[in-house]
Design a protein that fits this description.
Elements: E1 2-13, E2 26-36, E3 43-55, E4 61-63, H1 69-79, H2 82-85, H3 90-118, E5 125-129, E6 143-152, E7 155-160, H4 168-176, E8 191-194, H5 195-203, E9 207-211, E10 217-218, E11 221-222, H6 244-255, H7 262-275, H8 279-291, H9 299-310, H10 315-326, H11 333-342, H12 347-350
Antiparallel strand pairs: 1-2, 2-3, 3-4, 5-6, 5-9, 6-7, 7-8, 10-11
The structure holds zinc ion.
Length: 351
């Protein structure tokens, strides 16, 4: 704490006699001493007050200790009022307000994070204390950004960023720098967590913050690059297959976040493509049934379309079918393998 003083102009006063010239004509001024932090003009609280009597004739100052208590009280009432002291608490009030605001936003952010973790979505960002996962780190290597790349049932597939951050707050800066929108930012390796594992990480504060972009943006910055949407793009040579233009249209709609109904239109396009037996369209349609995007979640439909694509020996669809089926009590994998071998697809060679 540091201290400063402010002077109150006061008024004319006739009840003190000047010890030098004998004049009764004085001006009484008030001085408030206050404490401040950093900024002198933002007082935190008043410390003391005193009165100064200045002779109007010879400028001699009479100290308040030389004045009787009754006269001092009178002068005090004339000079000081409650109103003058309120601004002297401004610093403390500001501090309390700032702390309250900080606590409030912090609590809101915490609640939001927990909500995002308990109902994850593709493209959610996690701020991670990476020391939980490995001990083989250098002292400054502590925090990482992670992103959700896939959700199938309650298995969340996450990829970690390749950049380490030294302080917790640096991950937020990493996000708002926009570097995460580059395809190279995230490591290729995928990690799978169940929902309960994620919630446990959240509880331990390993996952200390979760954020969900809207329209591919966070904090006013694009954080999801175009090619980050979880869709299967066919290679160029299949571009003229039946159903290929519809699939292409679906992908374009999926990326057209500026349209209100882009997901629905993507779904319709993928459906047309799938019905034309285009395997990429079938896989993308299944993906929409699994994520419940634009249509209510329907695992049976998803499995049906994955099976159609699998029968064409399409290994991403086979892998996905096996994964989804494994989590579905009513799904029979043996049946699926049988179906595949009937149409001449050897699944083990395709994976
Ligand atoms: Zn005088």
């Amino acid at each position: 704490m540091e201290y400063s003083e402010s002077t109150i102009k006061g008024c004319e006063f006739y009840e003190v006699t000047c010890s030098k010239c004998g004049s009764n004509y004085h001006r009484v001024k008030g001085i408030i001493k206050y404490a401040f932090l950093f900024l002198e003009y933002v007082p935190c609280y008043p410390v003391s007050r005193k009165l100064v009597f200045e002779c109007r004739d010879c400028k001699n100052k009479t100290d308040s200790s030389a004045v009787s208590a009754a006269i001092l009280k009178k002068a005090d009432d004339l000079v000081f009022s409650m109103v003058q002291f309120i601004p002297k608490f401004m610093g403390i009030l500001l501090l309390i307000f700032a702390l309250g605001f900080w606590a409030y936003t912090n609590e809101q952010e915490n609640q939001r994070s927990t909500q995002y973790v308990s109902s994850p979505k593709v493209n959610d960002f996690y701020h991670i204390d990476y020391r939980h996962f490995t001990e083989a780190l250098r002292p400054h290597e502590k925090y990482k950004i992670a992103r959700v790349f896939d959700i199938t049932d309650d298995i969340v597939t996450v990829r970690f960023g390749s950049v380490f951050y030294r302080y917790k707050s640096n991950t937020s800066q990493g996000l708002s720098s926009g570097q995460v929108s580059s395809a190279q930012y995230f490591e290729k390796k995928e990690y799978q967590f169940s929902l309960s594992e994620l919630l446990a990480l959240r509880q331990k504060n390993v996952l200390y913050k979760a954020e969900r972009p809207t329209k591919n943006m966070l904090h006013g910055v694009i954080v999801i690059g175009k090619n980050h949407i979880n869709i299967k793009q066919p290679p160029i040579e299949t571009a003229y297959f039946p159903g290929a233009p519809e699939n292409k249209k679906g992908i374009a709609f999926l990326q057209a976040n500026y349209l209100i109904d882009n997901d629905t239109r993507a779904f319709d396009a993928f459906k047309k493509s799938a019905e034309l037996n285009f395997k990429y369209g079938q896989l993308n349609l299944a993906e929409m049934y699994l994520t419940g995007k634009a249509v209510s979640r329907d695992v049976t439909q998803a499995l049906y379309w994955l099976e159609q694509a699998s029968k064409q020996g399409f290994s991403p669809a086979i892998k996905k079918y096996i994964f989804v089926c494994g989590k579905e009590p009513t799904c029979n994998l043996d049946n699926f393998y049988q179906q595949l071998s009937q149409v001449g697809v050897n699944y083990s060679l395709n994976i």
